[in-house]
Amino acid sequence: MRILLLASAFNSLTQRVHAELRDLGHPVAVELALRDDQQLTEAVRRHAPGLVIAPMLTTAVPEEVWSTHPCLIVHPGPPGDRGPSSLDRAVQEGRDRWGVTVLQAVAEMDAGPVWASADFPLPPDIGKSDLYRGELADAALQAVLLAVDRFASGTYTPVTPPTHTWQPYLTQDERRIDWHADPTTTVLRKLRAADSQPGVLDTFQGTEWYLHGGHPEPHLKGTPGELLATQHGAICRATTDGAVWIAELRPRRVPGGPATFKLPATQALLKGRGAVTCAAPPRGREEPPTTRTQNTTGGSYSDITYEEQGTVGHLTFRFPGGAMNTDQCRRLLTAYRHARTRPTDVIVLGAKRDFFSNGIHLNLIEAAPDPAAESLANIEAIDDLVEEVLTTTDRLVIAALPGNAAAGGAMLALAADEVWCRRGAVLNPHYRLMGLYGSEYWTYTLPRKVGPAVAARLTEDALPLTAACAHSLGLVDQVIDCAPSEFADEITRMADRLARSTSLPARLGAKKAARERDEAVRPLSAYRAAELERMRAVFDDPAAPYHALRSAFVRKRRPNGTPDHLRTECPNGG
Ligand code: COA
Predict the structure, then answer these.
(1) What is 304-484+504-554's CATH number, 1.10.10.10, 3.20.20.20, 3.90.226.10, 2.120.10.80?
(2) 253-266: per-residue pLDDT in tens?
(3) Measured from the CA of 361, which atom of ligand 1 is nearest?
Protein backbone atom coordinates (compact mmCIF):
# COMPACT_ATOMS: atom_id res chain seq x y z
CA MET A 1 0.00 0.00 0.00
CA ARG A 2 1.31 3.47 -0.85
CA ILE A 3 1.63 5.32 2.45
CA LEU A 4 2.30 8.99 3.07
CA LEU A 5 3.65 10.04 6.46
CA LEU A 6 2.55 13.51 7.58
CA ALA A 7 4.76 14.89 10.34
CA SER A 8 5.79 18.12 12.00
CA ALA A 9 9.40 16.87 11.85
CA PHE A 10 11.14 13.74 10.65
CA ASN A 11 11.71 12.84 14.33
CA SER A 12 12.74 9.51 15.82
CA LEU A 13 9.23 7.98 15.85
CA THR A 14 8.49 9.12 12.29
CA GLN A 15 11.83 7.65 11.22
CA ARG A 16 11.01 4.35 12.85
CA VAL A 17 7.54 4.16 11.28
CA HIS A 18 9.11 5.05 7.91
CA ALA A 19 11.79 2.38 8.22
CA GLU A 20 9.49 -0.38 9.53
CA LEU A 21 6.84 0.21 6.85
CA ARG A 22 9.56 0.10 4.18
CA ASP A 23 10.84 -3.18 5.63
CA LEU A 24 7.32 -4.56 5.13
CA GLY A 25 7.49 -3.58 1.47
CA HIS A 26 5.18 -0.53 1.53
CA PRO A 27 6.29 2.38 -0.67
CA VAL A 28 6.52 5.27 1.82
CA ALA A 29 6.93 9.02 1.34
CA VAL A 30 7.01 11.86 3.85
CA GLU A 31 5.47 15.31 3.75
CA LEU A 32 6.37 17.72 6.54
CA ALA A 33 3.50 19.86 7.79
CA LEU A 34 5.39 23.15 7.59
CA ARG A 35 3.34 25.37 5.35
CA ASP A 36 -0.23 26.54 5.17
CA ASP A 37 -3.11 24.08 4.89
CA GLN A 38 -3.65 24.70 1.19
CA GLN A 39 -0.07 23.79 0.27
CA LEU A 40 -0.21 20.68 2.47
CA THR A 41 -3.52 19.62 0.89
CA GLU A 42 -1.99 20.09 -2.55
CA ALA A 43 1.06 18.03 -1.58
CA VAL A 44 -1.14 15.18 -0.30
CA ARG A 45 -3.22 15.27 -3.49
CA ARG A 46 0.00 15.02 -5.56
CA HIS A 47 1.19 11.99 -3.59
CA ALA A 48 -2.23 10.30 -3.96
CA PRO A 49 -1.54 7.85 -1.11
CA GLY A 50 -3.69 4.87 -0.19
CA LEU A 51 -3.27 5.77 3.45
CA VAL A 52 -1.94 8.78 5.39
CA ILE A 53 -0.29 8.20 8.76
CA ALA A 54 0.77 11.01 11.13
CA PRO A 55 3.29 9.58 13.63
CA MET A 56 4.08 13.00 15.19
CA LEU A 57 1.93 15.92 14.18
CA THR A 58 1.60 18.96 16.43
CA THR A 59 -1.00 20.68 14.23
CA ALA A 60 -4.47 19.61 13.08
CA VAL A 61 -4.83 17.69 9.79
CA PRO A 62 -6.61 20.03 7.32
CA GLU A 63 -10.21 19.05 6.65
CA GLU A 64 -9.51 18.84 2.92
CA VAL A 65 -7.00 16.08 3.71
CA TRP A 66 -8.90 13.95 6.26
CA SER A 67 -12.20 14.21 4.38
CA THR A 68 -10.65 12.93 1.14
CA HIS A 69 -8.00 10.46 2.40
CA PRO A 70 -7.99 7.95 5.26
CA CYS A 71 -5.73 9.57 7.89
CA LEU A 72 -4.45 7.78 10.97
CA ILE A 73 -2.99 9.81 13.83
CA VAL A 74 -0.62 8.40 16.44
CA HIS A 75 -1.63 9.87 19.79
CA PRO A 76 0.76 9.29 22.74
CA GLY A 77 -2.03 8.42 25.19
CA PRO A 78 -4.55 5.61 25.73
CA PRO A 79 -7.95 5.50 23.94
CA GLY A 80 -10.16 8.35 25.13
CA ASP A 81 -7.21 10.53 26.18
CA ARG A 82 -6.91 13.80 24.27
CA GLY A 83 -4.58 16.78 24.36
CA PRO A 84 -1.11 18.01 23.47
CA SER A 85 0.86 17.03 26.64
CA SER A 86 -0.28 13.44 27.21
CA LEU A 87 3.06 11.80 27.87
CA ASP A 88 4.35 14.81 29.83
CA ARG A 89 1.33 14.59 32.13
CA ALA A 90 1.62 10.82 32.56
CA VAL A 91 5.26 11.20 33.68
CA GLN A 92 4.58 14.22 35.89
CA GLU A 93 1.64 12.44 37.57
CA GLY A 94 3.88 9.43 38.28
CA ARG A 95 1.72 6.88 36.40
CA ASP A 96 3.14 3.39 36.03
CA ARG A 97 1.42 2.48 32.74
CA TRP A 98 0.38 4.51 29.75
CA GLY A 99 -0.86 3.91 26.24
CA VAL A 100 -0.65 4.93 22.63
CA THR A 101 -3.57 5.11 20.22
CA VAL A 102 -3.88 5.12 16.45
CA LEU A 103 -7.06 7.00 15.65
CA GLN A 104 -8.71 8.38 12.57
CA ALA A 105 -8.45 12.13 11.98
CA VAL A 106 -11.78 13.95 12.30
CA ALA A 107 -12.71 17.59 12.86
CA GLU A 108 -12.10 17.42 16.60
CA MET A 109 -8.48 16.80 17.64
CA ASP A 110 -7.77 13.26 19.01
CA ALA A 111 -11.50 12.44 19.01
CA GLY A 112 -11.73 10.07 16.02
CA PRO A 113 -12.51 6.35 16.06
CA VAL A 114 -9.69 4.08 17.17
CA TRP A 115 -7.99 1.69 14.73
CA ALA A 116 -5.57 0.20 17.25
CA SER A 117 -3.95 0.89 20.61
CA ALA A 118 -1.28 -0.59 22.85
CA ASP A 119 -0.19 0.05 26.39
CA PHE A 120 3.26 0.05 27.94
CA PRO A 121 4.99 0.40 31.34
CA LEU A 122 6.34 3.78 32.52
CA PRO A 123 9.43 2.94 34.62
CA PRO A 124 9.61 5.59 37.36
CA ASP A 125 13.16 6.82 36.83
CA ILE A 126 13.15 7.45 33.07
CA GLY A 127 12.80 10.81 31.29
CA LYS A 128 10.00 11.54 28.83
CA SER A 129 12.01 11.54 25.60
CA ASP A 130 13.82 8.34 26.54
CA LEU A 131 10.36 6.73 27.08
CA TYR A 132 9.16 8.25 23.82
CA ARG A 133 12.03 6.62 21.88
CA GLY A 134 11.77 3.40 23.93
CA GLU A 135 8.60 1.99 25.48
CA LEU A 136 6.24 4.37 23.69
CA ALA A 137 7.85 3.84 20.28
CA ASP A 138 7.66 0.03 20.67
CA ALA A 139 3.95 0.27 21.55
CA ALA A 140 3.30 2.81 18.80
CA LEU A 141 4.81 0.55 16.15
CA GLN A 142 2.76 -2.39 17.39
CA ALA A 143 -0.41 -0.27 17.10
CA VAL A 144 0.52 1.33 13.75
CA LEU A 145 1.29 -2.01 12.09
CA LEU A 146 -1.94 -3.51 13.44
CA ALA A 147 -3.91 -0.47 12.21
CA VAL A 148 -2.32 -0.77 8.74
CA ASP A 149 -3.26 -4.47 8.61
CA ARG A 150 -6.80 -3.73 9.75
CA PHE A 151 -7.14 -0.94 7.22
CA ALA A 152 -5.76 -3.15 4.43
CA SER A 153 -8.21 -5.92 5.31
CA GLY A 154 -11.09 -3.62 4.37
CA THR A 155 -13.28 -5.34 6.92
CA TYR A 156 -12.39 -3.61 10.18
CA THR A 157 -14.61 -0.92 11.67
CA PRO A 158 -12.73 1.45 14.01
CA VAL A 159 -14.27 1.91 17.44
CA THR A 160 -15.14 5.22 19.08
CA PRO A 161 -14.20 5.18 22.81
CA PRO A 162 -17.22 5.64 25.16
CA THR A 163 -15.73 8.78 26.74
CA HIS A 164 -13.03 11.34 25.99
CA THR A 165 -10.96 13.41 28.41
CA TRP A 166 -9.26 16.55 27.14
CA GLN A 167 -6.06 17.32 29.05
CA PRO A 168 -4.75 20.80 28.30
CA TYR A 169 -1.18 21.77 27.47
CA LEU A 170 1.11 21.35 30.49
CA THR A 171 2.22 24.90 31.23
CA GLN A 172 5.44 26.11 32.79
CA ASP A 173 3.35 27.18 35.81
CA GLU A 174 2.44 23.53 36.41
CA ARG A 175 5.99 22.39 35.71
CA ARG A 176 7.61 24.97 38.00
CA ILE A 177 9.81 23.61 40.79
CA ASP A 178 9.23 25.07 44.24
CA TRP A 179 12.73 24.53 45.60
CA HIS A 180 11.60 25.36 49.16
CA ALA A 181 8.69 22.90 49.18
CA ASP A 182 9.25 20.13 46.61
CA PRO A 183 11.06 17.00 47.81
CA THR A 184 13.57 15.28 45.52
CA THR A 185 10.99 12.84 44.11
CA THR A 186 8.75 15.72 42.98
CA VAL A 187 11.66 17.71 41.55
CA LEU A 188 12.80 14.65 39.58
CA ARG A 189 9.29 13.95 38.30
CA LYS A 190 8.96 17.53 37.03
CA LEU A 191 12.39 17.45 35.41
CA ARG A 192 11.74 14.08 33.77
CA ALA A 193 8.31 15.12 32.49
CA ALA A 194 9.98 18.04 30.70
CA ASP A 195 13.02 16.16 29.44
CA SER A 196 14.33 16.73 26.86
CA GLN A 197 11.80 19.37 25.76
CA PRO A 198 10.61 21.89 26.80
CA GLY A 199 12.67 21.80 30.05
CA VAL A 200 11.54 23.36 33.33
CA LEU A 201 11.73 27.15 33.45
CA ASP A 202 13.52 28.37 36.55
CA THR A 203 15.37 31.44 37.78
CA PHE A 204 18.85 30.55 38.86
CA GLN A 205 21.73 32.86 39.77
CA GLY A 206 19.69 35.81 38.50
CA THR A 207 18.98 34.37 35.02
CA GLU A 208 16.00 32.50 33.59
CA TRP A 209 16.95 29.03 32.37
CA TYR A 210 15.20 25.93 31.14
CA LEU A 211 16.51 22.98 33.17
CA HIS A 212 17.05 19.71 31.29
CA GLY A 213 17.68 16.21 32.66
CA GLY A 214 17.33 15.04 36.25
CA HIS A 215 19.28 12.44 38.24
CA PRO A 216 19.16 11.86 42.01
CA GLU A 217 22.22 12.69 44.13
CA PRO A 218 22.54 10.16 46.95
CA HIS A 219 24.77 12.04 49.42
CA LEU A 220 24.89 15.82 49.13
CA LYS A 221 22.47 18.12 50.98
CA GLY A 222 22.21 21.89 51.36
CA THR A 223 19.98 24.93 51.32
CA PRO A 224 17.14 24.21 48.87
CA GLY A 225 17.86 25.49 45.36
CA GLU A 226 21.53 26.11 46.10
CA LEU A 227 24.30 24.92 43.76
CA LEU A 228 26.23 22.24 45.65
CA ALA A 229 28.59 20.72 43.13
CA THR A 230 29.48 20.38 39.48
CA GLN A 231 30.62 17.29 37.65
CA HIS A 232 31.26 16.55 33.98
CA GLY A 233 29.21 19.57 32.89
CA ALA A 234 26.23 18.82 35.17
CA ILE A 235 25.26 20.87 38.22
CA CYS A 236 23.94 19.56 41.53
CA ARG A 237 21.25 21.57 43.33
CA ALA A 238 19.85 20.99 46.79
CA THR A 239 16.21 20.08 47.33
CA THR A 240 14.33 20.09 50.64
CA ASP A 241 15.48 16.53 51.39
CA GLY A 242 18.48 15.85 49.18
CA ALA A 243 19.80 17.02 45.84
CA VAL A 244 19.46 16.48 42.08
CA TRP A 245 21.81 16.67 39.13
CA ILE A 246 20.81 18.78 36.13
CA ALA A 247 22.74 17.94 32.99
CA GLU A 248 21.93 20.83 30.66
CA LEU A 249 20.62 24.40 30.68
CA ARG A 250 19.09 26.59 27.98
CA PRO A 251 18.68 30.33 28.53
CA ARG A 252 15.17 31.68 28.08
CA ARG A 253 14.86 33.37 24.73
CA VAL A 254 14.71 37.17 24.93
CA PRO A 255 11.57 38.37 23.11
CA GLY A 256 12.62 39.18 19.53
CA GLY A 257 16.08 37.73 20.22
CA PRO A 258 17.75 34.74 18.59
CA ALA A 259 16.70 31.17 19.44
CA THR A 260 18.67 29.72 22.33
CA PHE A 261 19.92 26.16 22.65
CA LYS A 262 20.96 23.69 25.33
CA LEU A 263 24.50 23.35 26.60
CA PRO A 264 26.04 21.26 29.37
CA ALA A 265 24.98 23.17 32.49
CA THR A 266 28.41 24.39 33.60
CA GLN A 267 29.27 25.64 30.11
CA ALA A 268 25.92 27.42 29.88
CA LEU A 269 26.53 29.15 33.22
CA LEU A 270 30.06 30.10 32.25
CA LYS A 271 28.88 31.48 28.93
CA GLY A 272 25.98 33.36 30.49
CA ARG A 273 27.62 34.78 33.59
CA GLY A 274 31.35 34.22 33.45
CA ALA A 275 31.46 32.12 36.65
CA VAL A 276 30.07 29.01 38.30
CA THR A 277 29.88 29.55 42.05
CA CYS A 278 29.25 26.53 44.24
CA ALA A 279 28.10 26.72 47.84
CA ALA A 280 30.71 24.06 48.59
CA PRO A 281 33.63 22.76 46.56
CA PRO A 282 32.56 20.11 44.02
CA ARG A 283 32.37 16.80 45.82
CA GLY A 284 31.54 13.27 44.97
CA ARG A 285 31.92 9.67 45.93
CA GLU A 286 35.33 8.30 45.02
CA GLU A 287 35.41 4.59 44.35
CA PRO A 288 38.78 2.89 44.21
CA PRO A 289 39.38 0.73 41.15
CA THR A 290 38.47 -2.85 41.90
CA THR A 291 38.04 -5.86 39.67
CA ARG A 292 34.30 -5.61 40.26
CA THR A 293 33.52 -1.95 39.73
CA GLN A 294 35.33 1.21 38.95
CA ASN A 295 33.61 4.56 38.83
CA THR A 296 35.74 6.16 36.14
CA THR A 297 34.37 9.64 36.71
CA GLY A 298 35.20 9.78 40.42
CA GLY A 299 31.93 11.43 41.38
CA SER A 300 28.32 10.70 42.12
CA TYR A 301 27.17 12.00 38.72
CA SER A 302 28.72 9.62 36.26
CA ASP A 303 28.12 9.62 32.56
CA ILE A 304 30.72 6.85 32.15
CA THR A 305 30.96 3.73 34.28
CA TYR A 306 33.01 0.57 34.10
CA GLU A 307 31.92 -2.71 35.62
CA GLU A 308 33.21 -6.26 35.34
CA GLN A 309 31.23 -9.47 35.34
CA GLY A 310 33.40 -12.55 35.04
CA THR A 311 35.80 -11.89 32.18
CA VAL A 312 33.56 -9.26 30.55
CA GLY A 313 34.22 -5.56 31.04
CA HIS A 314 31.13 -3.38 30.55
CA LEU A 315 32.05 0.21 29.67
CA THR A 316 28.79 2.11 29.78
CA PHE A 317 28.13 5.71 28.83
CA ARG A 318 25.08 7.94 28.59
CA PHE A 319 25.34 11.37 27.04
CA PRO A 320 22.31 13.69 26.63
CA GLY A 321 20.97 13.56 23.07
CA GLY A 322 23.65 10.98 22.25
CA ALA A 323 26.05 13.84 21.48
CA MET A 324 29.70 13.27 22.43
CA ASN A 325 31.75 16.39 23.05
CA THR A 326 35.54 16.59 23.02
CA ASP A 327 35.84 16.14 26.78
CA GLN A 328 33.41 13.20 26.82
CA CYS A 329 35.28 11.47 23.98
CA ARG A 330 38.58 11.95 25.81
CA ARG A 331 37.17 10.66 29.11
CA LEU A 332 35.61 7.70 27.34
CA LEU A 333 38.97 6.97 25.69
CA THR A 334 40.71 7.07 29.09
CA ALA A 335 38.07 4.72 30.50
CA TYR A 336 38.41 2.43 27.46
CA ARG A 337 42.21 2.35 27.91
CA HIS A 338 41.65 1.43 31.54
CA ALA A 339 39.28 -1.36 30.43
CA ARG A 340 42.04 -2.67 28.15
CA THR A 341 44.37 -3.08 31.12
CA ARG A 342 41.92 -5.39 32.89
CA PRO A 343 42.07 -9.22 32.67
CA THR A 344 38.97 -9.58 30.47
CA ASP A 345 38.22 -11.42 27.23
CA VAL A 346 35.37 -9.21 26.05
CA ILE A 347 34.68 -5.47 26.33
CA VAL A 348 31.08 -4.33 25.90
CA LEU A 349 30.94 -0.68 24.91
CA GLY A 350 27.58 1.01 24.94
CA ALA A 351 24.61 2.42 26.75
CA LYS A 352 22.08 0.75 29.03
CA ARG A 353 19.10 2.53 27.47
CA ASP A 354 18.26 4.99 24.71
CA PHE A 355 20.86 6.52 22.38
CA PHE A 356 24.13 4.81 21.61
CA SER A 357 25.69 7.89 20.03
CA ASN A 358 24.86 10.67 17.56
CA GLY A 359 28.49 11.68 16.98
CA ILE A 360 30.14 15.00 17.71
CA HIS A 361 28.40 17.58 19.93
CA LEU A 362 26.96 20.12 17.51
CA ASN A 363 25.63 22.46 20.25
CA LEU A 364 29.00 22.86 21.93
CA ILE A 365 30.62 23.39 18.54
CA GLU A 366 28.06 26.06 17.71
CA ALA A 367 28.70 27.80 21.05
CA ALA A 368 32.50 27.65 20.72
CA PRO A 369 34.42 30.87 20.01
CA ASP A 370 35.97 29.09 16.99
CA PRO A 371 33.47 26.45 15.72
CA ALA A 372 35.89 25.22 13.02
CA ALA A 373 38.60 24.53 15.60
CA GLU A 374 36.13 22.90 18.00
CA SER A 375 34.70 20.75 15.17
CA LEU A 376 38.19 19.49 14.45
CA ALA A 377 39.04 18.93 18.13
CA ASN A 378 35.81 16.95 18.60
CA ILE A 379 36.43 14.87 15.48
CA GLU A 380 40.03 14.14 16.48
CA ALA A 381 38.82 13.08 19.95
CA ILE A 382 36.16 10.70 18.61
CA ASP A 383 38.65 9.40 16.00
CA ASP A 384 41.13 8.60 18.80
CA LEU A 385 38.46 6.55 20.54
CA VAL A 386 37.50 4.71 17.35
CA GLU A 387 41.16 3.99 16.60
CA GLU A 388 41.65 2.51 20.07
CA VAL A 389 38.68 0.19 19.47
CA LEU A 390 39.89 -0.79 16.00
CA THR A 391 43.37 -1.64 17.29
CA THR A 392 42.16 -3.77 20.21
CA THR A 393 43.33 -7.17 19.02
CA ASP A 394 43.76 -9.00 22.32
CA ARG A 395 40.04 -9.26 23.15
CA LEU A 396 36.65 -8.97 21.48
CA VAL A 397 34.80 -5.67 21.53
CA ILE A 398 31.00 -5.54 21.34
CA ALA A 399 29.05 -2.37 20.61
CA ALA A 400 25.72 -2.54 22.49
CA LEU A 401 22.99 -0.33 21.01
CA PRO A 402 19.82 -0.10 23.11
CA GLY A 403 18.60 2.75 20.95
CA ASN A 404 19.38 5.03 18.07
CA ALA A 405 22.76 5.81 16.57
CA ALA A 406 23.61 8.25 13.83
CA ALA A 407 26.46 9.70 11.81
CA GLY A 408 29.80 9.32 13.66
CA GLY A 409 27.97 7.58 16.50
CA ALA A 410 26.81 4.82 14.15
CA MET A 411 30.35 4.54 12.76
CA LEU A 412 31.77 4.27 16.30
CA ALA A 413 29.67 1.11 16.70
CA LEU A 414 31.08 -0.32 13.47
CA ALA A 415 34.61 -0.18 14.91
CA ALA A 416 33.66 -3.02 17.29
CA ASP A 417 33.94 -6.68 16.31
CA GLU A 418 30.19 -7.13 16.67
CA VAL A 419 27.23 -4.79 16.85
CA TRP A 420 24.37 -5.94 19.08
CA CYS A 421 21.31 -3.83 18.59
CA ARG A 422 17.87 -3.69 20.21
CA ARG A 423 15.14 -4.36 17.64
CA GLY A 424 13.57 -0.94 18.23
CA ALA A 425 16.73 1.05 17.44
CA VAL A 426 16.93 3.25 14.35
CA LEU A 427 20.28 3.68 12.60
CA ASN A 428 21.33 6.60 10.42
CA PRO A 429 24.77 5.60 9.09
CA HIS A 430 25.41 8.75 7.06
CA TYR A 431 26.62 12.36 7.38
CA ARG A 432 25.29 14.05 4.26
CA LEU A 433 22.37 15.81 5.95
CA MET A 434 24.82 17.76 8.13
CA GLY A 435 26.92 18.69 5.07
CA LEU A 436 29.84 16.53 6.22
CA TYR A 437 32.01 13.98 4.45
CA GLY A 438 32.41 12.04 7.67
CA SER A 439 35.26 10.68 9.74
CA GLU A 440 35.53 8.01 12.50
CA TYR A 441 37.34 5.74 9.99
CA TRP A 442 34.01 5.12 8.26
CA THR A 443 35.72 4.72 4.89
CA TYR A 444 37.42 1.66 6.40
CA THR A 445 34.63 0.20 8.55
CA LEU A 446 31.46 0.71 6.52
CA PRO A 447 32.62 -0.99 3.28
CA ARG A 448 34.26 -3.69 5.42
CA LYS A 449 30.84 -4.50 6.87
CA VAL A 450 28.51 -4.09 3.89
CA GLY A 451 30.69 -3.84 0.78
CA PRO A 452 31.40 -0.68 -1.25
CA ALA A 453 28.14 -0.59 -3.23
CA VAL A 454 25.84 -0.76 -0.19
CA ALA A 455 28.12 1.67 1.69
CA ALA A 456 27.75 4.17 -1.16
CA ARG A 457 23.97 3.70 -1.24
CA LEU A 458 23.54 4.11 2.53
CA THR A 459 25.58 7.31 2.67
CA GLU A 460 23.89 8.76 -0.41
CA ASP A 461 20.27 7.80 0.44
CA ALA A 462 20.68 9.19 3.97
CA LEU A 463 17.64 7.28 5.20
CA PRO A 464 16.98 5.68 8.59
CA LEU A 465 17.25 1.89 8.90
CA THR A 466 15.65 -0.51 11.34
CA ALA A 467 17.91 -2.85 13.28
CA ALA A 468 16.45 -5.76 11.27
CA CYS A 469 17.28 -4.09 7.96
CA ALA A 470 20.77 -3.19 9.23
CA HIS A 471 21.18 -6.86 10.17
CA SER A 472 20.18 -8.03 6.71
CA LEU A 473 22.76 -5.63 5.23
CA GLY A 474 25.54 -6.81 7.57
CA LEU A 475 25.79 -3.64 9.67
CA VAL A 476 24.39 -5.33 12.77
CA ASP A 477 25.39 -8.79 13.99
CA GLN A 478 22.68 -9.53 16.56
CA VAL A 479 19.18 -8.09 16.80
CA ILE A 480 17.87 -8.27 20.36
CA ASP A 481 14.12 -8.48 20.64
CA CYS A 482 13.45 -7.12 24.10
CA ALA A 483 11.93 -4.20 25.98
CA PRO A 484 14.21 -1.22 26.66
CA SER A 485 14.45 -2.10 30.36
CA GLU A 486 15.52 -5.68 29.58
CA PHE A 487 18.35 -4.76 27.20
CA ALA A 488 21.19 -4.37 29.72
CA ASP A 489 20.53 -7.77 31.34
CA GLU A 490 20.18 -9.47 27.98
CA ILE A 491 23.52 -8.00 26.85
CA THR A 492 25.16 -9.19 30.08
CA ARG A 493 23.91 -12.75 29.47
CA MET A 494 25.01 -12.75 25.83
CA ALA A 495 28.44 -11.31 26.61
CA ASP A 496 28.95 -13.88 29.34
CA ARG A 497 28.14 -16.67 26.87
CA LEU A 498 30.53 -15.19 24.33
CA ALA A 499 33.34 -14.91 26.89
CA ARG A 500 32.88 -18.60 27.79
CA SER A 501 32.82 -19.77 24.19
CA THR A 502 35.53 -22.26 23.30
CA SER A 503 36.01 -20.63 19.92
CA LEU A 504 37.15 -17.33 21.46
CA PRO A 505 40.95 -17.92 21.22
CA ALA A 506 40.62 -18.84 17.53
CA ARG A 507 38.47 -15.77 16.88
CA LEU A 508 41.02 -13.51 18.55
CA GLY A 509 43.82 -15.03 16.49
CA ALA A 510 41.86 -14.46 13.28
CA LYS A 511 41.01 -10.91 14.32
CA LYS A 512 44.66 -10.01 14.96
CA ALA A 513 45.73 -11.50 11.63
CA ALA A 514 42.97 -9.66 9.75
CA ARG A 515 43.95 -6.34 11.34
CA GLU A 516 47.60 -6.88 10.35
CA ARG A 517 46.59 -7.77 6.79
CA ASP A 518 44.37 -4.71 6.51
CA GLU A 519 47.11 -2.47 7.95
CA ALA A 520 49.54 -3.77 5.33
CA VAL A 521 47.09 -3.00 2.50
CA ARG A 522 46.30 0.50 3.77
CA PRO A 523 47.22 1.78 7.22
CA LEU A 524 44.51 3.19 9.46
CA SER A 525 46.45 6.47 9.55
CA ALA A 526 45.87 6.83 5.78
CA TYR A 527 42.09 6.46 6.18
CA ARG A 528 42.12 9.00 8.98
CA ALA A 529 44.26 11.52 7.12
CA ALA A 530 42.11 11.31 3.97
CA GLU A 531 38.85 11.72 5.93
CA LEU A 532 40.22 14.60 8.01
CA GLU A 533 41.44 16.42 4.93
CA ARG A 534 37.87 16.44 3.58
CA MET A 535 36.46 17.41 6.98
CA ARG A 536 39.00 20.23 7.51
CA ALA A 537 38.13 21.69 4.11
CA VAL A 538 34.47 21.88 5.24
CA PHE A 539 35.23 23.21 8.74
CA ASP A 540 37.54 25.93 7.40
CA ASP A 541 35.16 27.11 4.68
CA PRO A 542 32.69 29.59 6.22
CA ALA A 543 30.48 29.20 3.14
CA ALA A 544 30.26 25.38 3.47
CA PRO A 545 26.63 24.27 4.12
CA TYR A 546 27.75 22.51 7.34
CA HIS A 547 27.86 25.81 9.26
CA ALA A 548 24.33 26.87 8.31
CA LEU A 549 22.99 23.32 8.74
CA ARG A 550 24.56 23.07 12.20
CA SER A 551 23.18 26.46 13.22
CA ALA A 552 19.68 25.45 12.06
CA PHE A 553 19.92 22.04 13.75
CA VAL A 554 20.88 23.30 17.20
CA ARG A 555 18.30 26.11 17.07
CA LYS A 556 15.63 23.69 15.79
CA ARG A 557 14.83 25.91 12.82
CA ARG A 558 12.16 24.35 10.61
CA PRO A 559 13.23 23.63 7.03
CA ASN A 560 11.57 25.63 4.26
CA GLY A 561 10.18 22.49 2.70
CA THR A 562 10.20 18.72 2.86
CA PRO A 563 13.68 17.47 1.88
CA ASP A 564 13.64 15.77 -1.53
CA HIS A 565 15.04 12.47 -0.23
CA LEU A 566 11.98 12.12 2.05
CA ARG A 567 9.36 13.32 -0.39
CA THR A 568 10.35 10.68 -2.91
CA GLU A 569 8.58 7.40 -2.35
CA CYS A 570 11.08 4.95 -0.86
CA PRO A 571 10.81 1.24 -1.46
CA ASN A 572 12.26 -1.45 0.80
CA GLY A 573 15.31 -0.38 2.85
CA GLY A 574 17.21 -3.66 2.48
N1 COA B 1 24.89 17.14 18.72
C2 COA B 1 24.11 17.80 19.61
N3 COA B 1 22.84 17.42 19.88
C4 COA B 1 22.36 16.36 19.21
C5 COA B 1 23.12 15.65 18.26
C6 COA B 1 24.45 16.06 18.04
N7 COA B 1 25.27 15.41 17.21
N8 COA B 1 22.37 14.66 17.77
C9 COA B 1 21.17 14.73 18.39
N10 COA B 1 21.17 15.77 19.24
C11 COA B 1 20.07 16.19 20.12
C12 COA B 1 18.95 16.83 19.33
O13 COA B 1 19.15 18.21 19.15
C14 COA B 1 17.76 16.55 20.22
O15 COA B 1 17.72 17.49 21.25
P16 COA B 1 16.34 17.75 22.04
O17 COA B 1 16.12 16.53 22.83
O18 COA B 1 16.64 18.94 22.83
O19 COA B 1 15.28 17.97 21.02
C20 COA B 1 18.13 15.21 20.85
O21 COA B 1 19.52 15.03 20.69
C22 COA B 1 17.42 14.07 20.18
O23 COA B 1 17.64 14.21 18.80
P24 COA B 1 16.48 14.23 17.76
O25 COA B 1 16.95 14.90 16.53
O26 COA B 1 15.21 14.66 18.39
O27 COA B 1 16.41 12.75 17.59
P28 COA B 1 15.79 12.06 16.43
O29 COA B 1 15.85 10.64 16.85
O30 COA B 1 14.51 12.66 16.08
O31 COA B 1 16.81 12.29 15.19
C32 COA B 1 19.06 12.21 14.26
C33 COA B 1 18.04 11.64 15.24
C34 COA B 1 20.31 11.42 14.53
C35 COA B 1 18.65 12.01 12.83
C36 COA B 1 19.30 13.69 14.50
O37 COA B 1 19.42 13.93 15.87
C38 COA B 1 20.58 14.17 13.84
O39 COA B 1 20.61 14.38 12.65
N40 COA B 1 21.67 14.37 14.65
C41 COA B 1 22.92 14.90 14.17
C42 COA B 1 23.84 13.80 13.71
C43 COA B 1 25.10 14.41 13.17
O44 COA B 1 25.11 14.98 12.11
N45 COA B 1 26.19 14.34 13.96
C46 COA B 1 27.37 15.05 13.63
C47 COA B 1 28.28 14.35 12.70
S48 COA B 1 29.21 13.09 13.52
Answers:
(1) 3.90.226.10
(2) 999 999 999 999 99
(3) 1
